[in-house]
Amino acid sequence: MKPDSAAIRKRYDRIAPYFxxxxxxxxxxxxxxxxxxxxxxxxxxxxxxxxxxxGKNFDYYPKDARITAIxxxxxxxxxxxxxxxxxxxxxxxxxxxxxxxxFADNSFDTVICSxxxxxxxxAVKGLKEVYRVCKPGGQVLLLEHVISSNPVLAAVMNLLNPxxxxxxxxxxxxxxxxxVKACAFTSVxxxxxxxxxxxxxxxxx
Length: 205
Fold this sequence. Notes:
Layout: H1 5-15, H2 19-22, H3 24-39, E1 46-50, E2 66-71, H4 74-87, E3 92-95, E4 108-114, H5 123-133, E5 134-145, H6 151-168, H7 176-181, E6 187-190, E7 198-204
Parallel strand pairs: 1-2, 1-4, 2-3, 4-5
Antiparallel strand pairs: 5-7, 6-7
Helix pairs in contact: 1-6
């Protein structure tokens, strides 16, 4: 049985105070540069960040944009609130699940997520919600780790996935590019700088 949102939320609530420390090495070596590349592609004035977590993207927010950021973990959001106040970041933070967004259709110029869909129980449902709230002609930017195209490494990732999900609630074997292409976006492009397991996906509504 796949974990539901409540089970995954509890896992993120549990690790929230230690989350930045847990990922510090990977953040410094890899994720930080990818976040910069992803946020450099943001367009428009009204931006939605889905899965804000502890606020790791605050340093990359465009200065002149109106930004709303959500997370489904109350404890992770609490960390983000503290960081927002400490850094004086201009962002509205809300507790919300990507699978059921409380925003009107066609609300945002850009919807952006970084390392989020690994933790969404129903990735397709989450993508449909992201598509719904994005304005016509707007863009969805996804920075995600995905299953490897190497059969041997993919087999290892599939083998380890239940353990990783049980510990932190994140799947390491998602095929997010395929899921995005299955949605109704007019175009889907994978940044040429993407690696085998980290993909920067640009989708246009």
